[in-house]
Amino acid sequence: MPADRSVLGAFLRSRRDALTPATAGIAPFPGPRRVPGLRKEELAVLAGLSPDHYSRLEQGRQHTVTDDIVDALSRALRLDEIEDAHLRNLAAPLRRKRSSAWESAQRPD
Predict the structure, then answer these.
(1) Is the separation of the CB atoms in 26 and 46 below 8 Å?
(2) Contacts of 43 (CB under 8 A, 6+ apart)
(3) pTM of the predicted model as reported, rounded to 2 decimal places
């Protein structure tokens, strides 16, 4: 699992950049486009998230990601099976490695 959420954010951004409004089945939001693929707001709408929540995910500032959110993002980004598995791995909760009593006793001081 990644040590931080920046890897998750980079993956989400790469998948968002690869998807256009036309291939996502939506009309583009009005205004000039500054990004090659979907805007954050467009993806948030497709996934049923607030734009702020999606931005926090992509910026690595959201520490917990529920299965429902992963499901919604996977559908919205039209991920294949391998990409979906990768997203789930990146979004998995960060766990601290717990040392057992045996490991603690075996460590040299």
Answers:
(1) yes
(2) 16, 19, 54, 73, 76, 77
(3) 0.77
| 73-83 confidence digits (pLDDT tens) | 999 999 999 99
Q: How far apart (Å, rounded) are the C-alpha atoms in residues 47 and 81?
A: 18
Task: Spell 59-78 as b/e; 16+ CB within 10 A means b.
Answer: ebebeebeeebbebbbebbe
One of 3.30.70.100, 3.40.50.150, 1.10.260.40, 1.10.3720.10 is the CATH number of 6-26+38-92, namely 1.10.260.40
Tell me which residue has tokens 């990644």.
2
Q: How do the domains of the chain map onto residue ranges?
A: 6-26+38-92
**Which residue shows structure tokens 């520490």?**
63
